[in-house]
Amino acid sequence: MAARGKKLINDPNDVVTQFIEGLAETYPCLQYLDGFPEVKVVLRSDVAVGTYDKNYTGDRLNFGLAAEEAKSEGYKVEMVIVGDDCALPPTQGIAGRRGLAGTILVNKVAGAAADACLPLEEVAEQARHAAKLVGTVGVALSVCTLPGQEISERLGPEQIELGLGIHGEPGIAVTEHQRVDAVVTHVVKQILSLETRYVPITRGDRVILLTNGYTIIKCCCCISSVKIAKLGATPIMELMIATRKAVRELQLEYGITTDRVYTGSFMTSLDMQGFSISIMKSDTTILQWLDASTKAPCWPAGTDGDRQKPAKVAVPAPPSCAIKSDKMLQQSRELTKEGCILEASIEAGAKEIIRIKDSLNEWDSKVGDGDCGTTMHRGAIAILDDMKKCYPMNDAAETVNEIGATVRGVMGGTTGILYDILCKAAYASLKGIKTVEAKHWANALQASICAISKYGGARVGYRTMLDALIPASEILRERLEAGDDPLDAFVVSSEAAMTGAESTRHMQAQAGRSSYIAADKLASAPDPGAMAAAAWYRAVALSLKSAWCHSKP
Q1: Model confidence at 314: pLDDT above 50
Q2: Which of 180, 323, 477, 496 could join 319 in a cystine, given CB atoms 3.0 to 4.6 angstroms apart?
Q3: Which SMART domains does this entry report, sorted A to Z (predicted)?
């Protein structure tokens, strides 16, 4: 039996009414039409408006009825129909092409023309002109779930659907999930097809691109404008990635320049996940209407202006690992015994993190956001890549500093910052020491712990990586002061690190995302950050002992 979709609603029958009430409370520029809630219409509070809609039979009938009723009461009414769907072949009947997210661009043109006090006939003509210039194609990863209804199983977990309508009507094809670049390439090609010639856009034209959110994926080609519509639950990050590809595809494959690019939620379809691309041919008048100011809640700000300006401004950056590598490698082309041991130890620690990636993610899914293993894995891979190119292994301090630069560049988030702080503090402690011995590494570890505690606020018992590193540091210093063999001291301290990490199962988190999790939930897994720290520390300690023993004559 299919499951019902989970939604944060009250009675499914009241969803539209309560949504409109919340919308009007949020935006003072909106008001109900007289007769609400039986008449579910929202208007601008400062003007009277006419009406038109997108091409669906039900929509045309309802808006047509409204138009006729308005006429019968003496109102002057024009009706404009938008059919921007480029996914389906030309229809043989009277239905015509479906109206999709390209309607949003036509709405904006008509609204701005009306706001400029053009006569109704001219407003309608501007809208019809815009409607002829736009095309759209949608893509969905999931089908929307109506309030109170069962979840649709039309699409499998590894399938996507091309060419859907905004109400979730089936598209032209169901295919296997693909990289978004491939999907966007197909969508743009469909919109600009020379066979259907749905939009009058050719090489050398200028267009407008729109990415629309919370609705079926669609693409629109119109008046020098390309539009990408976001469906349902599609994150803005994914929409931006699709927009990036669409702009490049237009420029490189079709010789078409984008005058404006809009990305966001404009025409929505409940929880459907996907996006649509709309492309509109651009001209001076269209741009004038699109750039006109508006109080429409979801119309993006800051998108007007000259797109001939570079997308990025070059800013000088610190020398990267790759830039510094030649000089470093020249200085340390032949590794000393200590350099070889350091290299082997770093490699061992990175490989151990790679090995336990899935375990870290599993623990983090129970007490955090589930990506600790992925984040640490990304840093480990980068370290293995950079260490052969630009780590001066004969200089321990500089090598530690370079590790910090590596993780800062690829790990991101809190974890990346903490490990960069750890490396910077260790570097400061080791800098200037010609021959780095065990006591110096112990001091560097202590300095790193102090820095992390200072800036992160964590202490022992807070359920963080310090619950592994602090016991390791204490045992290492204790064993070295007692005169133990340094290699044995490192191994014993690594055991303390692992014990400390495991003990986090019984701690109530005082820092990080885990601090928001109930104690009984935390008991199901150790802190993944502590386990990661203990894992690489233990691997480094064991490698040190093994490499040193093998290096003896």
Answers
A1: no
A2: 323
A3: Dak2
Look at residue 409 in the predicted model and tell me its pLDDT.
79
pLDDT in tens, 456-487: 888 899 889 999 999 999 999 999 999 999 99
* DSSP string for residues in 355-424: HTHHHHHHHHHHHS-S-HHHHHHHHHHHHHHHHHHH--TT-HHHHHHHHHHHHHHHT-HHHHHHHHHHHH
318 close to 304: Cβ distance less than 8 angstroms: no
Rounded distance, CA 255 to CA 258, Å? Answer: 10
Q: Among positive and negative, which fits the CA dihedral 139, 143, 144, 146? A: positive
Q: Phi first, then psi: give them for residue 478, nearest 5 degrees.
A: -65, -45
**Tell me: the pLDDT tens digits for 479-516?**
999 999 999 999 999 999 999 999 998 888 776 656 65
3-state SS, residue 116: coil
Say if strands 159-162 and 218-222 run parallel, antiparallel, or are unpaired.
Answer: unpaired
d(CA 359, CA 348): 18
> What is d(CA 141, CA 158) in angstroms, rounded to the nearest whole number?
8
Q: What is the DSSP letter of 515?
A: G
* Beta-carbon contacts of residue 248 (< 8 Å; ≥ 6 apart): none
Q: What is the mean pLDDT of the chain?
A: 81
Q: Identify whether 177 is a catalytic site residue.
A: no
Selection from 99, 100, 127, 101 nearest residue 113 by Cα: 127
Q: Which residues contact 125 (CB under 8 A, 6 or more apart)?
A: none
How is residue 233 written in tokens?
Answer: 């639950």
